[in-house]
Amino acid sequence: MRLDKAVSQVTDLSRADVKRAARAGRITVNGEPVSDTSTKIAETDEICLDGETVGEPGPRYFMLNKPLGYVCATKDSEHPTVLDLIDEPNKHQLHIAGRLDIDTTGLVLLTDDGQWSHRITSPRHHCDKTYYAHLADRIEEDAVAKFEKGLWLDSEKKRTRPARLEILFANEARVTLNEGRYHQVKRMFAALGNRVLELHRERIGDIVLDEELVEGDYRSLTPEEISSVK
Predict the structure, then answer these.
(1) Of 114, 162, 184, 188, whose CB is crowded by the most CB atoms within 10 A?
(2) pTM for this prediction
């Protein structure tokens, strides 16, 4: 890999910025200044920028506790995006694995590993997602069986897949489903004549939102969390 590409992949510097930094003597390879950014770099080479070791490019995996008012997009002309909450080099290269509506909070996963992201979002993989829902009205007991059977949603040609509904209190529930239709949880309750007031995602697959993450914070996933997505 070329030096300019290797440095730009793990910093916020463009290739032109890397070239200027190299000419200024700010970049070393194995302790020696390198001014030619077309130099080929081996995996074992140690690259430093301003005396600090530059990490080897590799896939990144994060969990974010999404607050209200943020959209799951890379750019939006009207609203802040979840990427505005991320302080990482080249964050625009991150994929949002499992989007949430602007008024839904909770677990969002971000990665630059496209295959890993696909295993979460592809309908073929049937990745479970769990939500806490606060409803406007009391949840009827027969709703559990109706969720399990599948519901007809407006403008849909087939029922939803079977979903698990756990009634926590009169108007609070936990929902687990493995598909991602538009506004699905809200529309499922609407099909029963109820309305979702609050929706919060707690889990994607075996990855559970870290209770220590306050809204707007994020952290890297653990190796165990990463490998749980198969």
Answers:
(1) 188
(2) 0.81
In the beta sheet, which residues pair with residue 196? 135
Q: Which CATH superfamily is domain 128-204 in?
A: Alpha-L RNA-binding motif (3.30.70.1560)
- The active-site residue, picked from 76, 101, 128, 210, is 101
Query: Is 127 in contact with 178 (CB distance < 8 Å)?
Result: yes
Q: Which helix (H) or strand (E) holds 169?
A: strand 164-169
- Other CB atoms within 10 A of residue 173 CB: 23
Report the C-alpha gap between 146 and 150 in whole angstroms. 6
Is 3.30.360.10 the CATH number for 3-53? no
Is 45 one of the annotated active-site residues of the chain?
no
3-state secondary structure of 44: coil
